[in-house]
Design a protein that fits this description.
Layout lengths: L1 E3 L15 H14 L1 H8 L10 H16 L5 H16 L2 H14 L1 H13 L6 H27 L10 H11 L2 H5 L15 E3 L5 H12 L2 H12 L4 H11 L2 H10 L1 H15 L6 H33 L10 H27 L5 H25 L6 H23 L27 H4 L1
Antiparallel strand pairs: 1-2
Helix pairs in contact: 1-2, 1-7, 2-7, 2-8, 3-5, 3-17, 4-5, 4-8, 6-16, 6-17, 7-8, 7-13, 7-14, 7-16, 10-17, 11-17, 11-18, 14-16, 15-16, 15-18
Keywords: Membrane, Transmembrane, Transmembrane helix
Organism: Pleurotus eryngii
Protein name: MFS general substrate transporter
Length: 439
């Protein structure tokens, strides 16, 4: 699929069901029910189980499969069900099986989601549409967290969450496949600027050739380290909650912390749609600010970790240690989601072709999952917290200069690693060639 520009550049009235906003709402709704509810369980730390080590091992196995394979949604239901059975009966083999199956089958959603949210929206609304997608994805952990908090708020002890928690989450997950049916075919999508999304047919050989041209390109390779480490922190933060927070405080975290994701997505989304700054200025400013915030948070993490290791508390929301420890978790989610939103916006500036964007976002999602697999693998046993902190800081510092080599090109030059085959498209995508148009 490629995006072909009409001769007229005026805003047009579109049918709400075919609008780009509705398509983003559908994608967000699907992720609300499936990965979003999975994230609600993850926000409890260790999937709500009593100890984190085996849960982290299964998460590592699931993310490893996501790195290699692309597919769907029902396996997330199986994983939630396996958490339920493991908590009830101690069936650890099914928990591992559910995680691996989930990893094998959720990659396709990631591959499809990326090009839709980066290429469908009109250019001057792309940041806000990314923010809307982020809000819907993270409304699930907020609402799921509210359910979890309501069910578990009376459990003033450490250990596993109530079994009813899993049943409530599984019920919401079941709605995902039906919401997915509302997504329009790309040829039916209507944009306000009159730009049509044109279906571009490709065969296996052409697809493989184009995919390799994209993933082996210098700019993609330079972005890979930052994507690898973008969610690396999650296993450490989740384990920290399981080690030091009691059940009802973990449930409170599951409810409140995802609000930081929503705020972070909207803040950076509206900034990236700012018309008073050039694309180059927005790319560089957001990158510099977010990288500084990420590194500052790891300094704060080291301080909090040292304090927790010295006192080894079991923290309730009434404990004196709660405020300073909780203050670490919310900013992490805010800054991390702001960073990911800006990275998807960056990718959207690198191509107008839907299929090329699917190669890019799918590959980078795979790299992201590889990072999570490594991170959860490190925390699958009772290793020192300082190992995780060292890996996170080291990888992040290493990734920054490589990513900067791509960021500094945004708004300055066009990206032409791949040109769609003229024989396979009705109209070629019109990418801006001049620096003036890009800026």
């Amino acid at each position: 699929m490629s995006i072909a520009k009409d001769e007229e550049h005026v805003l047009r009235k579109v049918h709400w069901f075919r609008s780009t906003t509705f398509q983003v709402l559908v994608v967000g709704g699907v992720f609300f029910c499936a990965p979003g509810m999975y994230n609600a369980l993850s926000a409890l730390g260790a999937g709500g189980l009593a100890t984190p080590w085996y849960a982290n091992a299964t998460a590592a196995a699931g993310y490893d499969r996501s790195t290699h394979v692309s597919s769907g949604m029902y396996a997330l239901l199986r994983y939630a069900g396996s958490l339920y059975l493991n908590s009830k009966n101690g069936t650890q083999w099914f928990l591992m099986f559910g995680s691996i199956l989930s990893g094998i089958t959720d990659g396709l959603m990631y591959a499809v989601e990326g090009p839709i949210i980066t290429s469908y929206p009109e250019p001057d609304r792309r940041g806000r549409m990314l923010a809307l997608w982020v809000a819907l994805r993270n409304a699930a952990p907020v609402i799921g967290g509210a359910i979890i908090f309501g069910i578990n708020s009376s459990i003033n002890a450490s250990g596993a969450v109530s079994l009813n928690t899993y049943l409530a989450i599984i019920g919401i997950m079941c709605a995902g496949p039906f919401i997915a049916l509302l997504l329009s075919h790309p040829s039916q999508v209507q944009r306000k600027d009159g730009v049509a999304i044109v279906f571009r047919k490709t065969g296996w050989l052409l697809s493989l050739s184009e995919w390799w041209s994209v993933v082996a390109s210098k700019n993609m390779l330079l972005l890979c380290p930052l994507f690898f480490t973008s969610w690396f922190y999650g296993s450490y933060i989740g384990t920290l909650q399981t080690q030091y927070f009691n059940v009802r405080t973990r449930a409170l975290c599951a409810f409140v912390i995802p609000m930081g994701d929503i705020v972070g997505g909207f803040m950076v989304g509206y900034f990236l749609d700012n018309k008073r700054m050039s694309i180059k200025q927005k790319a560089r400013t957001s990158f510099a600010f977010l990288m500084t915030c990420n590194l500052a948070l790891w300094i704060w993490t080291a301080i909090i970790t040292k304090q927790l290791e010295d006192s080894k508390p079991i923290i309730d929301w009434t404990s004196p240690e709660f405020g300073r420890t909780f203050s670490l978790f919310l900013p992490f989610d805010l800054v991390t989601m702001a960073t990911q939103t800006s990275l998807f916006w960056i990718i959207g500036q690198m191509s107008n072709d839907f299929i090329v964007l699917s190669y890019m976002t799918g590959t980078l999602r795979g790299v992201e999952c590889a990072g999570q697999a490594v991170a959860y693998g490190i925390k699958s046993s009772d290793t020192t917290d300082w190992l995780s902190i060292g890996f996170n800081v080291g990888l992040f510092v290493l990734a920054i200069p490589f990513a900067w080599m791509v960021i500094r090109k945004i708004g300055v030059q066009s990206f032409k690693e791949i040109e769609p085959d003229a024989a396979s498209t009705d109209e070629k995508s019109e990418a801006p060639d001049s620096k003036e148009e890009l800026a």
